[in-house]
Structure prediction request, 387 residues.
Amino acid sequence: MRRIALFLALILSAATCLAGGPPAPRAVDLTAADGTKLRATYYSAGKAGPGVMLFHQCNRDRKMWEALAPNLTNLGINVLTLDLRGFGESEGTAAFKLSPEEGRKMITDTWPMDVDKAYAYLTAQPEVKKDLVGAAGASCGVNQSVQLARRHPQVKSLVLLSGDTNRQGRLFLQNSPQIPVFAAAADDDNGAVEVLQWIVAYSRNPGNQFYRYANGGHGIEMFAPHPELTTLIVNWFDATLLKTPGYAPVNAAHPVPKQNILVTIDEPDGAAKASAMLAEVRKRDPNATPFTEGIVNLIGYEHLQEGDNKGAIEIFKLNTVAYPTSPNTYDSLSDAYVADGQSDQAIQNAEKALKLLESDTTDPETRRKGIRDSAEQKLKQLKSGNR
Prediction:
């Protein structure tokens, strides 16, 4: 009788779970390679289905996804959210609290290992289809989403909100037209629209979608003024992971921007090609600036960090042509000449930056001070022969 009662109780419990929908979320404790304790939350759909990893932005933690994740499990998608180290309930120091070099190393080297630990947990769950995974990220979570897809071909769909990725990630998107990308950003988010348009323009998937809002703020902040965005994301994963896995139908109402001059810059001899494109544009409008100074500056420093000094020089030179009155473009070009061992050219451009600072009314004082300090320090070292 006891066995029969226990059997009936198990049946009743299972029936109750089925009637009530997916199981309750459960906290997950993970241990990183260096022993750091990480905390995640697993949202089981209660049945076999795809998996999705959600990456928080760097002014939040995994709890930012608490409203979205259950909507995915209701569809039959299993979800894992992770607190990056130093955020939420995970141990460690947040990357932005470290020195620039230590922070960069954590983002590029340590976070991916932590993410892979979480990914291994997700794909080890018996109900998760290991060959069908999606990833979504906001702000700094965008790069983690793209890099996860780069490391794991099982990632078939991406959602990117108000963020960017590095050159490695951009080239991955360019070489992975099979992965559909959904993206959204707001105009009042300090250039986020242009940055994300630049990133998504690398992808050639015809099903990509880009939603541009006039306002809404950064990342998850867009959910409040635009509640339909949550529904759009849920529908995106429904389409690309459940209904037509790895495929998104073309939506002409929300097309992704076409490949642009910023994408060209990353190509072999890209600066020369972009320079010709800039010249052509300025035949029609002498004052046209088809790209943002800051993005080109970022690309230049990425090439510099990779040891491509010659390429960086050409990219920074392109920026001086497009923005001839900007002190920062000449200071950056001076950095590239220093790296390449061209002291005379480095001195000339550092002096040019200081000269332009005298009449600069565009940059705020803090930025002007940073440029001035950088240029003066280089000049002091170069002219004394202490490089």
Observations:
- The first strand starts at residue 26 and ends at 31.
- The chain has two domains: 21-243, 261-384.
- The longest helix spans residues 100-124.
